[in-house]
Amino acid sequence: MTFFMLLEGRVEVTRGGAPVGPLGPGDFSGEISLIDGRPRTATATAVGHVRALEVGRTQFLELMERHPAVRHGILVALTDRIRSDEGSDLA
Question: How far is CA 8 from the centre of its chain?
């Protein structure tokens, strides 16, 4: 399990084969499975050249524990994704 922070390039995210949306520099993926230890909820595929920071689960959890601002940023992004998913279910 790995967390990825996109530094350059673009990644397309799909869930069950359906497009979810693109990720660009500053976006991240993999956090959900690192938090709960379960399989990934989506697939991220690079579109062209991509440069990303890769962080394993142990380091990710340590980062979240030691840096409240990082933890808060990830939690805000997760709630945004949940609200976005709920909105698409209601449409």
Answer: 15
